[in-house]
Amino acid sequence: MSTQDAAARILTTCLGLQRGERLVVVTDTGREAIGHRFFQAGRDLGAEAVLVTMPELEADGQEPPAAVAAAMAAAQVVVAPTTWSLTHTAARRRACEAGARVATMPGITEDMLEEGAIAADYEAVRRLSEAVARVLDGGRSVRLITGDGRQLVLDISGRRAIASTGVYRDPGRWGNLPSGEAYLAPVEGSARGELVVNGSVSGLGVLREPLLLRIEDGRIAAAEGPDADRLLALLDQSPQGRMVAELGIGTNEAARLTGNVLEDEKVYGTVHIAFGSNVGFGGTIEAGIHIDAVILRPRLYVDDMLVVGDGRVYA
Predict the structure, then answer these.
(1) Distance (Å, rounded) from C-alpha 308 to C-alpha 132?
(2) Domain-by-domain residue ranges, the chain?
(3) How confident is the model over 161-172, as a mean pLDDT?
(4) Residue 1 pLDDT > 80, yes or no?
(5) Could you tell me if 182 and 161 are in contact, meaning their C-beta atoms sit under 8 angstroms apart?
(6) The pTM is what?
(7) Are strands 244-250 and 271-276 parallel, antiparallel or unpaired?
(8) CA torsion sign, 174 to 111 to 10 to 133?
(9) Which residues lie closer than 8 Å to 229 by C-beta, 6 or more apart?
(10) 288 closest CA partner among 130, 84, 14
(11) Structural fold of domain 3-114
């Protein structure tokens, strides 16, 4: 599939774009060519398409310029192929509150438009993502076992899970593309224990060696490994950057580990823990950054029921 055909498929299949609808494509100087493909596909489909290009931001979760946020809030459909993520921003949240359907695509590449997670059977992704979300919704506690048996415990009682299905056709719906995960905001301050990250991290790519994170009272107290200083430098851009913000489970069997967290966190049978902002999906932290850490082949229990193990998802 060509990138132009993929852009048209995303607009029609995933976002349900109709002739005459207001489409805003938000991109930046690092993803302008991809942004233009979505703009052209939207025009070809008969939408009232606008292409908005901004300078590259500096981190996931950073707010875009006010003019960009205003354009998003005025749209019916927003597609955001950007270098850094707009997913967990007030701009995205306000656009959805105004009724926009929003697909964010942080770090998207030409390759990712043609292969991998974007080519998944999104009906199968939807079914599994929603099933996992139901399990999380019914749970009170999560036990995550990584590495050589390190354990992290999180309280999820009262927190609602979100199934990121890749299908955002109703007003106010939003999520990543490519997609395929179920996630929630754990109770702030509840996470405690140790976590071995052996996949990838936002802004760092695929890890050369695992990171060991020690977590106390819901925030990273210490980090060990070759990339530990780089991770903490990213997180310490905000006083709230080290806070545990998200627990997610990958549900897309076509997704690959590429070093781009947009696709990596969707890999079937992985778990990701994110740090920083979560106010946009049921939490209370507004950090201005959101950094995901992907874990390969973990074991995850919800109230002692195995949900992820041996590279499989049980839901």
Answers:
(1) 10
(2) 3-114, 120-313
(3) 94
(4) no
(5) yes
(6) 0.84
(7) antiparallel
(8) negative
(9) none
(10) 84
(11) Thermophilic metalloprotease-like (3.40.1830)
